[in-house]
Amino acid sequence: MANYMDIIAGCKDKTGGIIEAYHAIQKEYNYIPEEALKEAAKAFKLSEAQAFGVATFYSYLSVKKRGKYIIRMCESAPCHVAGADEVLKAMEAYLGIKVGETTPDNKFTLELTECVGQCQATPVVTINSEPVFNVKPEMVPGILAGYK
Amino acid sequence: MTQEYRVLLEHADKINPESAADYIQVGGYKGLEKARSMNPKDLTEEVKKSGLRGRGGAGFNAGMKWSFVPQYPETKYVVCNFDEGEPGTYKDRIICQKNAQALLEGMAICGHAIGSNNGYIYCRGEYPFVVEMLKKAIGNAKESGALGEFNIEVRMGAGAYVCGEETALIESIEGHRGEPRFKPPFPGVEGLWRMPTVVNNVETFACLPYIMTNGADWFAGIGAKSYPGTKVLTLTGDIENPTYFEVPTDYLLRDVIYELGGGVKGGKKLKAVQVGGTSGAFIPSQNLDTPIDFDSMGAIGAALGSGAVFVMDESRDIVDIINRIAKFFEHESCGQCTPCREGTFRCKEIMERINTGRGSLKDIENLKVLARIMQKASLCGLGQAAPIPITSTLEHFEYEYLRKLV
Fold it and tell me: Which of the four, A108, B145, B377, B398, has the lowest number of CB atoms within 10 Å?
């Protein structure tokens, strides 16, 4: 796993690159650890409060620890009418967690999202940003079993 | 007329979008060559003359926008708005995945017109795979020499709908919270890092090579007179062919649904269609014989917006869908200005009450007052547009609300 110090150093020369740095940190850690956030604040000459303000503004960034696989269920109107609610219920039942929670084995985090721009095949779920198309409730166990 | 008319997507799936050589083989980068042989002022005039208007939703004349950029500052920026966050929209992704080089060429053409060699593409965080592809496409175009001195950097958003607003997008590239700025000054005068900046949508930029190659008059002659060219649409919801199409802008909404779209799914009747994404108006079936162009849509109280076409069949519960949309805006409001922050919250609260059978006539009255205040007093387009789905359904589908009241 790449050290967050190295990751931040790699983005430091990009003006305004703190969001790029956060993306790169999340790619390794799946969230932005507090120490990494403090380091980023220093590198981009922001107060910790400002750096925290940026990290918590965007829904793709998280300052809370998350699982290895982040499942995001789209709930925008096209997915909503295609049955997103039922898929979400099936997810919650299969994983035994509610939206916003992580499974005890730290494998899956379940989140809601707005449109992910794959509306040709609704409802859509993304798992670590990879879209899964035309998801039906009965497909949920099969899909998630593929993630080890 | 039931055919597509492909300009931007003519070579879709036949060329590799990453490869400048592929693109050059089908006539690519000729437009840039021609643009660079012109002086910037004439180039801007040519684009103005083509009648090209912004494809992101606001429909502003592109050449006019460029003409606001002052000449004297040394540093200026060309920014591509690829934050398409309107639910039901994925046309910019399709344009990039099919014809990325046209976007790059378009940005370089704009760069020549305003005197800038600094380009940024702000791509939404939902498309990391497109970011990778764009980086390769840029690398390839630079290597081939096609872009010359013009540089393009890709920055990735992180899941904030409001960043589609140009000043919020600029704030986000600068590494800040994506909160819109007060306008004026407009970005053309004071944009990225307080320098003059042109922000255009992916589709707007991608039109430019074809305008330069075929001439402004050619473009002005396609589709609707006041909003010429083609438009890439994405069909979603209860439709037989949920896919994308490129059509001339005078194409009828009815034909989009019943010809290209193959009709309402399962042969059901149409109840409503929402054009332009989640902030668009709901259009009842009696208004289907309207061309999709900006002004024709405006004339029926709707908007072309991003070109998303969301179809709902007769069985759909309008109030439930509006409730979902109200929740969307409450979630996406950046919280900076009060009319939007409080307004979207109250809209959601009232819609939830109505949707669960606890609403009253007073709630509907309050929604109308709230909508008026939000439309007039919100700082940016998000708060101004958020009540449109509510007001348009209260106008055309009031009975759906009334039957859910206590």
Answer: B145
